[in-house]
Amino acid sequence: MRFDDIRTRLSGYTVGIAGAGGLGSNCAVALARTGVGCLVIADYDIVEAGNLNRQYFFLQQIGMKKVEALRDNLLGINTEIKVDIFDAELNRDNIPGIFEKCDIIVEAFDRADMKEMLAETVLSTWPDRYLILGSGLAGYGKNNELRQRNVGARLIVCGDENSETSEAHPPLAPRVGIVANMQANAVLEILLNKL
Amino acid sequence: MKITLNNRPEEFVGEEISVSEMLKIKKFTYRMRLVKINGKLIKKDEYDKTLIKDGDDVQMLYLMSGG
Q1: CB–CB of A164 and B59 under 8 A?
Q2: What does the buried/exposed string (b/e) look like for A95-104 if buried means 16 or more CB atoms within 10 Å of the residue's CB?
């Protein structure tokens, strides 16, 4: 498929991204560059200096709401797409409304309990919707341990499913970026081949 | 009984076991996880009463922090 055909095809879809941190910001950039028509992004956080080691923000954006800063960055890359932002902490009650119109949902949280909450909510609200999780990306190296596993037809997990972040194993730009781009790549595969 | 656990064959003693027992036997101790039996999500508060039976397709995945 030529890029023009790919872009035209992708322009008709909406992808939800739950979290605008390391996974979410990098995944969103990849999807914006490729031309996914609408991105729905939710996060309540603000950009801090410590985020710049792996998240797609800039020094002058410190102090901004992450969703607003990310929308600026995405539209600075591609003006053809639509970016819907929600400045909200996601929970079991607001997830169904915020992501209602999304063809695919990408889980891009930092905290494990939030990942679990989102997965449970999405799977019980829409059993047939595609959900792409990120799990296991701490530290550096070990390229070959990062992979995709399909858990049934519509639940996909990207990462090594093993390395948890901690003081001694921080999340770093390369592995976070790899997993975020694996998630974006899985989105493209679904949108271009399956939906 | 024989089941499929994360796409691999697995054998347990007895006719059926609960999700809680399976997690204990397999030493799946990390708390943040998803369990699906034959494609259906099993919520945490159902682990004790939900039984895994011969032939079931069980998927378990850990949700590690980091993102």
Answers
A1: no
A2: beebbeebbb
Residue of B4, B3, B27 whose CA lies nearest to B16: B3
Beta strands in A21-103 (DSSP E): 38-43, 82-87
Cβ-defined contact of B62 to A134 (cutoff 8 Å): no
CATH number given to B2-62: 3.10.20.30
* CATH number for A147: 3.40.50.720
Facing residues of A155 across strands? A131
B59 contact residues in A (CB cutoff 8 A): 151-152
ipTM over 0.90: no
pLDDT in tens, A89-114: 999 999 999 999 999 999 999 999 99
Query: Domain range for residue A183?
Result: 3-193
Q: How many CA atoms, within 13 angstroms, populate the side-chain half-sphere of residue B58?
A: 28
